[in-house]
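Pasting as-is:
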Amino acid sequence: MSVPTGADIEALCSKCGDVWHVVVAKVGEDIVRVICKECGAQHRYRNPKAPKGTTRRASSTTSAPRAAREPRVVQRFDTPAVQADLSKAVRTYKASERFVVGERVEHPTFGQGVVEVIEPGKMTVFFAVGRKMLVQAKGDGGGGGLSRPRPFEHPSAAAAAAPAAKAAEPADD
């Protein structure tokens, strides 16, 4: 006898361990998906009465062996694209500073690296873990960037009243 879709059935829930479920989907006479009545999780049907290792899986392909996949080649870079300038000391990375190509940088997360490419406001640095895009100062370091505007100065009450008083006086001709 076949169990209809929507009927209650026993199945093991992988989330809460409950056994009472509702049949959601069938393929032919086989139950393939159920919903747990306890936690609402939807999963494939697992028959609690079936012995271990005897689950039947439908194969959509023939039993011919698969062709071996080509191994994926991961390109690794062991050396930076530019030579490090060893005449200068290693600088600690700060986003508010500017750097030059070939300069050595000490980053708190990635360690020591070499600056490879400079763009306005950013730079590419070669680290042992790979290349990383980091932020750097855009200006030339001479205060050419944005600065905080001066606060607006309100005229005092006495200074504001003086021009109004002068306008009210009759002009001497």
